[in-house]
Amino acid sequence: MAIPSALTIAASDSCGADGLQADLRTFSALKVHGASVVTVVTAQNTEQVTAAEFMPPALIEAQIRAVFDDMALAAIKIGALGNVETIETVANTLNDVIDEEKPIPIVADPVMTNHAGDLLVDREVIDSWKQNIMPMATVITPNLAEAALLTDRERPGTLGDLMEIGETLVELGVQEVLVSGGQGKAENSIDILVSSIRPPVQLRAERMTRENMRGLSSTLTAAIAAHIAHEIAPYEAIQVSKVFLSGAIDTADTFSIGSGPGPIHQLNRLWESRQKSS
Asked: pTM (2 decimals)?
């Protein structure tokens, strides 16, 4: 059986809740074969991160080239890169291995702040991401704080602010920008999808809170990449991926893993079908 393949370039989470482990579960849930390039190895569990180490640039490049030498990729997801050297290595290698006549859609998650909006990187990393990753990205998915960092503006406080920031990012060359409103306080989570080819839209979803809430942005971006791999246009892929994410959040507390918050349930549809068949 032929299925599309997608590549995630992201950090490894040793407890399997987030990062490329969440990406690979999402790919599998959406019937896409997942290949992976590790950018950062973390030692963590559901309660704390105890260590992290960046992969050497030569090893990151070798991973990318090994995948491209053997596989036809239908989409790429870029997650946590973390430092300038990694950003430049990923960008330079992808620019070298991707055929200009057969571009591969790239979905990029900035990963510059945590869910609370705390900064994870310095200004040099932000500028390098804008210079190297944004020009090659088909879709980017910044949260409120990241959208402000990428446009040198205050964090958006209104829907009008969200729209303006999304339009600014599209003007910088990205085809589709999804500015996530997940950090807001309203009853509904409102994302703004701004496109270079379609009118902007508001994507509203019930703000759900579960004990297990790890891997939200990883799951969303991986789902977008997976749907694009199935030849769904990016604009539509973003919208159906929001539905997939809501299902993964809604069923997140189906299981308990570790003593702290665990992952959302990317495989909920598969598990439900197996339970019904048994």
From this structure: 0.94
Rounded CA-CA distance 13/97 in Å is 27
Q: In what order do the strands lie in the sheet with 33-44?
A: 49-54, 33-44, 5-13, 75-78, 106-108, 139-140, 176-179, 188-195, 201-206
Q: What are phi and psi of 9, to 5 degrees?
A: -115, 105
Q: In which residue are the tokens 């990151």 written?
A: 60
Question: pLDDT for 203-228, tens place per residue?
Answer: 887 777 888 878 899 999 999 999 99
CA dihedral 177, 178, 180, 186 (to 10 degrees): 110
Q: Which residues of the chain have pLDDT under 70?
A: 1, 115-116, 182-187, 273-278
Could you report the per-residue pLDDT of 225-254, keeping only the tens digit for each?
999 999 999 999 999 999 999 999 989 888
